[in-house]
OmpA family protein
Amino acid sequence: MRSAAKGLTAILSIIIVGAALSLPRAYAGDDGNSKNVTEDEIVRALAPPAKKPLTRGLSIGPQTESAPNAAETKLIQSVRGRSTRSLSSTEREEIASVVKDKPNIDLEITFDYNSANISAKSMPSVQALGRALTSPDLKGSTFVVAGHTDAAGGEAYNQDLSERRADSIKRYLVEKYSISATDLVTVGYGKSKLKNPSQPLAEVNRRVQVVNMENKTTASK
């Protein structure tokens, strides 16, 4: 009886292991390729929401959004063309406040170790970004390119690294896709704005966020 039980246990173990190996990987994104986004995905994420038409018969009241838009325009105009390192901590926070409700997308762009060089596996995402920003739907807007790191390392080190990486993305877009440098506002946040604070060292925190300011009047034509 005991040997028969052992034999049955061995058979069940083989069945369980075989079933586990046949299941699809739930974390297939870890292969590095599926994290790359397409041009269409970026365009959809950054496209301004369609404005609702005015209802006939309703009177048009004061334009309550004019003041915030004027303030946003003034801020963006003041930082356009500025170097990333020249932005003060106050200006960085003002930009963060302005962009929080704008169309945006987080791109998991990796870089060479301790470097601002874009990794080969992330190049397709950066190229898709370049094509998207020069598409008819998005061309002419001003975009904020914000670099973020995880929580490893000191604040000064991460701040510098995030700025250099944001600059690296901007430089590539300007050189390869002829996007006007003044239409790309770069800012670095280091580890101050973790996407997943509960896991400060998670890869999701190492990202580049692109935001459409939706204001073509601030962009060069």
